[in-house]
Backbone:
């Protein structure tokens, strides 16, 4: 057996690449050292093979991420080789969605790679806080990450460890694929860093051929992308198991459950795309990232078309014409056409009416007839507009009597009306700008108050939007109105509970949050059974844990273990709900 295979197989029981614990030295800290052109500032992370420091590149005065190989690996040629492979492989690429490598070096026996420093978080941490992602954000992440992996594949590079931890999210919404530490050049036989029969990577996201130690090509990375996309859309990887071997066998043997079983609002076409990425046989997957991106672009276009199909028949008034909050929006064109006709011709409607009462032949003069014609059109336009406005006001009153909380987005009627409730929901998901999201979500129950499933789903999305906007007053109003909804079911009562609990956090009442959420989880006759609601609860608890780290926070030591236990209970509950759904389907 060659040395690389020995290294890979020494710790297959836990799929770890760390050396034996007895050989592992105490953690070190290089803060303050100068390595070549780089001054080390502070430790920002540790991995199986190395540590990552924030450093300053002295010559260019810019921040960099300095990846340093752990001392226990420097005596192993295979790992030194892999370390240099990461740098040289990524240096081949110049792509906006791949972390850029600046330099590879060694100083005083310390081997390092200087890389682009990405300020933000990674997808795994973001999912822990937010649960499953909204579809527009998920589509953006899919496009950017697939573009990066595709660029690597085009030059023969296989990442081999695609997972949420290695997708970095910048503050400007850009995805950066990082950590090519297991990367292999599929076109080069000189590297021999990992070989057929060797299993490396992360089993939660590992392709079947990688789990079996078979030879790989870029389609293996596409499988791992598919698992990552599944996780971010559903909030949970497709497979779970008690140990790494059992998990690997699930990837090899078990069919992947549809995402729509766990999250019905996911479009069918998007579900098919992710399942195709996760086909067991590489030949059944997309054969390249470019092929997958072409389908993703079609899906995005189709979804947007469905959501916006009726928009062409509805003109949103410009800001200067928007009605007051308690008035229906004025249809663009009616008022503007009438005012235009009056001002351009200088018609005095009152004078014309006085002349009519006088009688005489003057009425048959061409100029007067033209003026009368304009006046008639003007009056007709004004009356027609008034009729439309009255009809819309009556329609809005009827809607308000059947659907709650419409006053939270008073201009919801200016949202284009779609053909059905699902298309209306898709419009809010994919088309509505952030400044009009509240109105767009309310347009679902507003226009389709009898479509309970889509209306209830829209209220959940509205609640999470208001929470992220830190708007406790509207959160409280939504909770109260949901409790009075004639069509409400258990999940709407539970949403109202969670909205009130999220409001407690916004007011700084962490103890109240803990007590109330525990009561919600403990209710036996109304068990939380909607994954979206559970995700909302997990998000609120994660935010509560984050607030405990703020300076001057009192009671944190007592609250932290309670919040951690609460999050654990919610995640267990979510797993049970998903397992039950799968068994039923």
Residues:
């Amino acid at each position: 057996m060659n040395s690389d295979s020995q290294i890979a197989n020494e710790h297959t029981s836990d799929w770890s690449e760390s050396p034996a614990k007895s050989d592992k030295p105490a953690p070190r800290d290089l803060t303050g050292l100068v390595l070549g052109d780089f001054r080390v500032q502070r430790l920002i992370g540790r991995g199986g093979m190395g540590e990552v420091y924030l450093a300053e590149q002295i010559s260019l005065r810019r921040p960099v991420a300095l990846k340093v190989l752990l001392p226990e690996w420097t005596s192993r040629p295979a790992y030194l080789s892999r370390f240099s492979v990461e740098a040289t492989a990524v240096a081949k690429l110049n792509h906006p969605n791949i972390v850029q490598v600046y330099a590879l070096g060694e100083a005083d026996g310390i081997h390092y790679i200087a890389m682009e420093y990405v300020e933000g978080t990674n997808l795994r941490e973001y999912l822990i806080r937010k649960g499953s992602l909204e579809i527009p954000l998920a589509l953006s992440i899919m496009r950017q990450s697939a573009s990066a992996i595709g660029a690597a594949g085009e030059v023969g590079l296989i990442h081999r460890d695609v997972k949420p931890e290695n997708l970095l999210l910048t503050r400007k919404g850009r995805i950066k694929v990082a950590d090519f530490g297991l990367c292999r050049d599929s076109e080069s036989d000189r590297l021999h860093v990992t070989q057929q029969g060797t299993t490396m990577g992360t089993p939660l996201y590992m392709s079947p051929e990688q789990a079996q130690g078979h030879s790989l090509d870029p389609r293996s990375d596409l499988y791992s992308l598919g698992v990552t996309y599944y996780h971010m859309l559903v909030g949970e990887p497709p497979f779970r198991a008690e140990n790494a071997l059992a998990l690997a066998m699930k990837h090899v043997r078990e069919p992947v459950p549809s995402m729509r079983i766990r999250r019905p609002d996911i479009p069918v076409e998007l579900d098919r795309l992710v399942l195709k990425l996760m086909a067991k046989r590489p030949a059944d997957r997309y054969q390249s990232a470019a092929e997958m991106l072409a389908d993703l672009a079609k899906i995005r276009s189709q979804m947007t078309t469905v959501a916006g199909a009726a928009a062409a028949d509805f003109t949103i008034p410009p800001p200067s014409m928007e009605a007051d909050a308690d008035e229906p929006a004025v249809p663009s064109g009616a008022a503007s056409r009438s005012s235009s006709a009056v001002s351009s011709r200088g018609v005095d409607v009152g004078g014309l009416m006085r002349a009519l009462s006088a009688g005489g032949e003057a009425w048959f003069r061409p100029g007067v007839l033209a003026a009368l014609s304009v006046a008639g059109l003007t009056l007709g336009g004004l009356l027609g507009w008034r009729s439309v406005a009255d009809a819309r006001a009556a329609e809005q009153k009827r809607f308000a009597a059947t659907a709650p909380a419409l006053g939270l987005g008073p201009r919801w009627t200016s949202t284009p009306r779609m053909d059905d409730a699902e298309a209306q929901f898709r419009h809010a998901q994919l088309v509505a700008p952030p400044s009009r999201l509240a109105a767009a979500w309310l347009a679902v129950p507003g226009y389709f108050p009898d479509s309970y499933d889509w209306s209830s789903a829209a209220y959940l999305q509205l609640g999470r939007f208001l929470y992220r906007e830190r708007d406790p007053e509207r959160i409280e109003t939504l909770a109260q109105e949901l409790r009075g909804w004639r069509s409400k079911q258990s999940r709407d009562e539970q949403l109202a509970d969670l909205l009130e609990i999220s409001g407690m956090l916004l007011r700084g009442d962490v103890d109240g949050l803990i007590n109330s959420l525990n009561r919600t989880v403990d209710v036996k006759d109304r068990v939380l059974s909607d994954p979206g609601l559970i995700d909302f609860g997990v998000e609120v608890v994660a935010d509560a844990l984050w607030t405990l780290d703020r300076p001057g926070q009192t009671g944190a030591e007592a609250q932290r273990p309670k919040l951690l236990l609460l999050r654990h209970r919610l995640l267990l509950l979510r797993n049970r709900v998903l397992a039950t759904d799968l068994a039923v389907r």
